[in-house]
Write a structure and sequence with these properties.
The complex is a heterodimer of chains A (about 110) and B (about 120). By secondary structure, chain A is mainly beta. Helix content of chain A is about 0%, strand content about 55%. Chain A is globular and about 45 Å long. Chain B is mainly β and about 120 residues long. The chains are: A mainly beta (about 110), B mainly beta (about 120).
Amino acid sequence: TQLLEQSPQFLSIQEGENLTVYCNSSSVFSSLQWYRQEPGEGPVLLVTVVTGGEVKKLKRLTFQFGDARKDSSLHITAAQPGDTGLYLCAGVQVNTGNQFYFGTGTSLTVIP
Amino acid sequence: NAGVMQNPRHLVRRRGQEARLRCSPMKGHSHVYWYRQLPEEGLKFMVYLQKENIIDESGMPKERFSAEFPKEGPSILRIQQVVRGDSAAYFCASSRGLADSYEQYFGPGTRLTVT
């Protein structure tokens, strides 16, 4: 059983379109992070959200942490080919501060 | 300001040999995590270490796998008597402290291929 489920698993869109990736769980997390990973490389941290309802923006990327801290979303506006990659969410469960649990990943392809 | 370093980047081993993967954390980071990633999958936690201590190894297979983070030098993930199923990308990450308080930063990974 996967603690963090991401959807969709695969996404292929045209340049300029908008998209949203979801990260869902039945567990509560003290914090949640989003990463982007390119082939042959390690994940690169994009953002950390820690407060329920928190919204953070990073240029064309908007991240939201659910009010109950069980889910998160990543919205990309006007996607560009450089956004192509594997997007991973990862969270630390409340009261178990040792492990990061990673989501199943969303593979995004932006077609020029 | 070097990031997390891992070596080797690629490692080929025959079945039954030993694999040693090394990870040097970012400067100032004393916490190291190891993960395994199979193709088209997310990362699976293996072990969490501080200097000279294993804090959480609940994700490590019970046999053939071990990890250490000595007082001096890099963290080592050791796989004895490798089998084909051990072929994967192994990533380490480092942080300043506990996962719920500090962000972790990843190295480029070691791709292990068992032939």
